[in-house]
Design a protein that fits this description.
Largest sheet: 2 strands, antiparallel
Number of helices: 4
Radius of gyration: 29 Å
Helix content: over 70%
Length: 112
């Protein structure tokens, strides 16, 4: 029992040490990238160090449900998805809307 407690404490100590080493490496990477002007990498490193959010890499699936791994294919899948969502019929010109509203009001007045 005592050896198990001792081993558990050792594992926790090693975990804390490894975490600090990992965070130091992330900070060093962030500093290097800041020197080169890579703000995206600096931002991700800072968020991970501060533990504000977790950066996840979720798989992207195409229309058939197959996982896409190539960056070019991922871009194509996103482009098709956004085109499908954002592709709406052309909205009428605001002047046309006002003209139709006035015509309708005039027709309504004439009917009375």
């Amino acid at each position: 029992m005592a050896s198990r407690i001792k081993n558990n404490k050792q594992v926790k100590r090693n975990t804390r040490r490894d975490k600090l080493i990992h965070l130091d490496k992330k900070a060093a990477i962030g500093e290097e990238e800041a020197k080169h002007g890579e703000s995206k990498v600096v931002y991700k490193s800072t968020k991970e160090i501060m533990r504000k959010c977790r950066i996840t890499n979720r798989p992207v699936k195409d229309a058939n449900g197959n996982i896409v791994s190539d960056s070019v294919e991922i871009s194509v899948v996103w482009a098709l998805h956004l085109e499908k969502i954002l592709n709406r019929p052309h909205q009428a010109d605001p002047q046309d809307i006002l003209r139709a509203l006035f015509e309708r009001q005039n027709q309504h007045r004439k009917a009375l």
